[in-house]
Amino acid sequence: MTVRPETLRSSSLPSASAMRIYNTIEQMRSASRAARSEDKRIGFVPTMGALHEGHLSLVKAAKAQSDFVAVSIFVNPTQFGPNEDFARYPRSFERDCQLLEVEGVHAVFAPAVAEMYPGGEATTVMVHGISEKLCGRSRPGHFHGVATVVSKLFHIVEPDCAFFGQKDAAQVAVIRRMVRDLDMRAEIMVCPIVREADGLALSSRNAYLDAEQRKTALVLSRSLREIEQAFGSGERRVAKLIEIGQALFRQTPAARLEYLEIVDPDTLDPVPQVAKRSLVAVAAFVGGTRLIDNVLLA
Ligand code: PAF
């Protein structure tokens, strides 16, 4: 589903002056502190822009649960590997701001790379173990980049609660662990995956797919759905459930499966026996585009 700003604009548009855009750490921190001094609960949604309805669902949740909502738009170079898509990652800043203004966001934090990393990156946050599981295995350093930037953003915005999408289930596990280990005060809120009508999980990287690849990409959500159905019918054997998903990939050679695993959602360790709350996570390449999806069994 495509979000058209003009459609959203026809709904209740907040006063144009309501949303402020900050490019410096000092400005953003002052705005947050001013809100806190008025006893406002600060909700924060970190993003890399190229916003879609998945992001907007996080913003809506933040609006519902806080009095001052800040959204960051920062394509963080340190979480991309040398051969990954940092340079061509979709950027649509003006459109993103229009969408956020319609949602009634109070502050957009959009720093330049030099503002966030003026002297490079001598200090990093590493969440050991968990950062090397699932996507972390094939994207070495990715979750160190994520943990470091999220920790920096938390220090700048000082949120009471921060909103993340379940789509990035491994990222959620890493952030939760970081918050717990480093006694950060932000409450981590996780919102459900938003899907297209045919099941494709929304992702900024879907923009890379052509029409044929878009169809191929459905193998991710279909494999998860089949596994979910088999679980619903009583199947509990890990190997059997994984085989059900892998079979679908074998029938779809245009997609290259990277992993299909059933893990504990907190530790990301493979589960010996599938149970409720087990996380089925999948990553696959369609053409040059790496896509991920997951389901929590219920
Ligand atoms: O999920 C994302 O878009 C990014 O990993 C995040 C959390 C904004 C950190 O750069």
CATH class category of the largest domain: Alpha Beta
What strand order characterises the main sheet? 1-4-3-2-5-6
How much helix, percentage-wise, in residues?
25-40%
How much strand?
15-25%
**Ends apart, CA distance between termini:** 26 Å
Indicate the CATH topology of the largest domain: Rossmann fold
Q: Compounds present? A: pantoate
Number of domains: 2
Which runs of at least 5 residues are low in confidence (pLDDT < 50)?
A: 1-16
Count every beta strand, where a strand is a DSSP E run of 2 or more residues: 9
Number of helices: 11
Mean pLDDT: 94
From the spread of the alpha carbons, the general shape counts as globular
Rg, nearest Å: 19 Å
Structural class: alpha/beta
Specify the CATH architecture of the largest domain: 3-Layer(aba) Sandwich
Assign the CATH superfamily of the largest domain: HUPs
**Topology as a string of helices (H) and strands (E):** HEHEHEHEHHHEHEHHHEEE
Q: Please outline the major beta sheet.
A: 6 strands, parallel
Short overview:
The protein has 298 residues and is of the alpha/beta class. It has 11 helices and 9 strands.
Highlighted features:
Rossmann fold; 6-stranded parallel beta sheet; 298 residues; binds pantoate; disordered N terminus; alpha/beta; 18% strand; Pantoate--beta-alanine Ligase, Chain: A,domain 2
Describe the structure.
This protein has 298 residues and is of the alpha/beta class. 38% of the residues lie in helices and 18% in strands. It folds into two domains: 5-191, HUPs (Rossmann fold), CATH 3.40.50; 204-296, Pantoate-beta-alanine ligase, C-terminal domain (Pantoate--beta-alanine Ligase, Chain: A,domain 2, 2-Layer Sandwich), CATH 3.30.1300.10. The protein is built from eleven helices and nine strands. Helix 8 links the parallel strand 5 and strand 6 (187-191). Pantoate binds at residues 46-48, 76, 79, 146, 149-150, 168, 171. Pantoate is lined by residues 46-48, 76, 79, 146, 149-150, 168, 171.
